[in-house]
Amino acid sequence: MKRSRRGDLDQAEHPPELMLSPRLEAAAAAALLLLGLAHMLTLWFVSDDAFISYRYARNLAGGIGLVYNPGERVEGYSNFLWTLVASLVIRAGGRPELWMPGLGVVCSLGTLGLVMAAIRRRGASPLLAGAILAANPAFAAYATSGLETALFTLLVTSATLATAAALAPGDSFRTRPLLGSAFLLGLASLTRPEGALVTACVGALLLTLALLRCGSVRSWMAWAGAWLVVAGPHLAWRLAYYHRFLPNSFAIKAPGLLQAPEGGRYVILALGELHLLWLVPAIVASLLFGAWRGLAGRELGLMGAIVLPFLAYVCATGGDWMPLFRFVVPMLPLIALVAAAALEGWMGFGGSRAARRLGWAFAMVSLMAYVSLDLRASWRQQVPNGAPNSVWIARRDLENWRRLGEMLERVTQPTDTLATTAAGVIPYVSGLYTIDLLGLCAPDHSRYRRRATDRPGHQWVLAEAELYRLRPQILLGHPVVRDTLHYLGMSLDIDPAWRDRIVSSYSLVGLTLPGTPVRYAGCMLRNDVAERVLEAGRRLAPPP
């Protein structure tokens, strides 16, 4: 056994037959970064939900405030720091739908490089951990989604590694990495509400170690104070500005035991679809027999103290409906680190030098082949094996809805009101006052009712009495876009007892969307504005 610089009793020195020359290893790591970039570009898609944040950012940049609709203070986003960055992009004259996905790619490549560098510093090869992460389709797809997932993943990974560096043996923590951990966790908490959950997990572990005299309680208090300095002002501002401690998403999709079965299915499906289940036997066996290479016991305990509660929380929320399991993505770098340490540990036991090299090559080739096959599943038009949406569906919907938003911007007046379940790109492009039928951006949830669905985030809908009272000029519901006017309709959840009363005030029309190929969208126009909108559409139509 070898005592590392951290003073901890570490695993045996890495066998030379499992190591590459520094130059060859650096070249292989660079190749993995390029592989990761190519994977991200291949699965490039921008989520419709990202445009909710962009609408908030545009209103903030325009001096209206951090609001969805002017005059309505409701926190319909759940990514404060990401939204602020998007606002700065807009103030600088940029388009967030172009710049923010690029920033996500930078964050994801940074995470990939950080994972490889971290395990290399701990005496193991970076290639297996890098391959597991670079080849993961969820990690690649959410680099470009326009959402905050990539930034949050980078911050959680950085904070975990900083905390691991602070876990010196003995009765004290290392001060500089400990404060760095608090700062990074503070930024993570500003990026996603789940950052507070990760902070609580790390804080509980640090406090336990301090009480066991493996660290200082005073250092723990300094760590907690540093986190409050970063995250505390935002909590105070949120309460003063929105009059709530939590974003609106917690009112729409509050964690609870009722969602746990569906959330558990979501997590298990994620492990299967993302090809992580094959890593579980190596991790479990390594836990039982101590076959690790590159990670010390405290580091493994830290990662387990973060990953397991985080996945339990995902179960409690019921999961998500977006493609490729975005709620699991922030844990993928930590899973890759633990899995790589386990696999390398087992490769170091027994056998000849040639057998070990063969095992290493087989593991790498199998991994790449496994995930390359999955790339096709990520693009399938139909949802694979009951999993959430595919990337193909998300890209198609965004393009169709963007064109629909452009059409509405051209044929409506600024005083018109839109009611839809798709609160992203259509309201962002059209600029219309929007009633979010699912309630995420709604200031008053007392006017919403439960729906008979298990789809996370779609379990509430505007009550029929309130929809009848508001009578928006454009009733879009869930946008239905087709390549023909035949069978064109509208998708809207209305109680049959209210259907005739509401629909009698509207006319169902098909709008021809700008651009090619030709697409048609069905929506309901209030009778008193239908002719105006249709006439504006006819003026925009190209000559026959």
UniProtKB/TrEMBL annotation:
Keywords: Cell membrane, Glycosyltransferase, Membrane, Transferase, Transmembrane, Transmembrane helix. It is found in: Cell membrane. Its main location: membrane. One of its GO terms (cellular component) is plasma membrane. It is a multi-pass membrane protein. The chain crosses the membrane at residues 26-46, 98-119, 126-144, 150-168, 197-214, 221-240, 266-288, 300-319, 325-346, 358-379. Signal peptide: none annotated. InterPro entries: LipidA_mod_glycosyltrf_83. GO terms for biological process: lipopolysaccharide biosynthetic process. GO terms for molecular function: pentosyltransferase activity. PANTHER family: MANNOSYLTRANSFERASE YKCB-RELATED (PTHR33908), MEMBRANE PROTEIN (PTHR33908:SF11). This is Glycosyltransferase RgtA/B/C/D-like domain-containing protein. The lineage of its organism: Bacteria, Candidatus Eiseniibacteriota.
